[in-house]
Amino acid sequence: MEQDKVRAEFEAWWIDSKHDGEPDFIKRAMWAGWQASRAAMVVELPPCPQPELEGAEEEDMEAFYALSGLHHAFRAAIEAAGIRTK
């Protein structure tokens, strides 16, 4: 997730959780904690499947490309939420 989106998410949480109006140093400390919590999260994805090319049918290759696309989409969605992947 881009830094602006992460900050906007924090700001929305800050207001919704009734912290709005707290001293600024509290907000800065909470923001630092928010960032640290995001940095600490890492999702380990299983490796992308590799095709067995020898004797592979066209349907097998289509399935491989579909799985490969899903793997990429999952990684992109997780990283878009500001979470690192392995």
Architecture overview:
With 86 residues, this protein is mainly α. 63% of the residues lie in helices and 5% in strands. The chain has a two-stranded parallel ribbon with strand order 1-2. It is rod-shaped and about 65 Å long. The two termini are 16 Å apart.
Topology (SSEs and partners):
Blueprint: H1 3-16, H2 24-40, E1 42-43, H3 58-80, E2 84-85
Parallel strand pairs: 1-2
Helix pairs in contact: 1-2
What labels would you give this structure?
5% strand; single chain; mainly alpha; 2 domains; two-stranded parallel ribbon; 63% helix; 3 helices; 86 residues
- Major sheet, described briefly? 2 strands, parallel
Count of the separate structural domains: 2
| Quaternary state of the chains | single chain
Report the portion of residues in β strands. under 5%
Order of helices and strands: HHEHE
The best one-word shape is rod-shaped
Mean of residue pLDDT?
86
Output the strand order for the largest sheet.
1-2
Question: Which value, in Å, is the CA radius of gyration?
Answer: 20 Å
Structural class: mainly alpha
> How helix-rich are the residues, as a percent range?
55-70%
CA distance, first residue to last residue: 16 Å
The parts where pLDDT drops under 50 for at least 5 residues are none
* Tally of contiguous helical segments: 3
* Quantity of strands, as a count: 2
